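Record type: monomer structure entry
Structure origin: computed from sequence
Chain ID: A
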Amino acid sequence: KDTVLNCDINIKSKIKNIHTKGLPAFLLESELLKKISLQVGQDIVIDESSKKNIFLQTKSRVENFLQQEGFYGSEITISYTSYPQNRNIDILIDIKKGNFVRINNVVIMGDDLPNVSKFEKSYKRMCFSFSTILESFSKGFNCYSPELESNTTKSLVQELVNEGYIQANIRVSKYWLNND
């Protein structure tokens, strides 16, 4: 019997540059690049399987970063240019569309609620609490995040409950600021 040994040899390429295109003006490319798994100087294998996995993971991390910064609805494409003579590649993260979100309207439902304007102001000024003021300035005054909205809502619902409004409910609607 003959024994056959098959070996797949995958040549690694080195990431020479990572560029972004379409990143919103208030967001820093350096901050985005810290959040993704690809780094300049990293050796990677560019075959179909690993390319799909690496690029899907990177796309997911870019989407998460943008959403944490209050930027939703973007289309992200990751592509690369290969330079076979020196086995380097350049990666492009292309961000299209998308909008920043802000709190537009706050509806507080319930009978005879006290000081509704106080609750509305809490949402519109949630970026300017002591713990988020520096962060909001670094993001160009857009600190919206689902987590911050949720925390504000929970806090206000608890205030209503403490005041005896057990059935009170808060609904927040958002609007999108055009990025163009």
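Annotation 1: The mean pLDDT is 79.
Annotation 2: Residues 25 and 140 are 9 Å apart (CA to CA).
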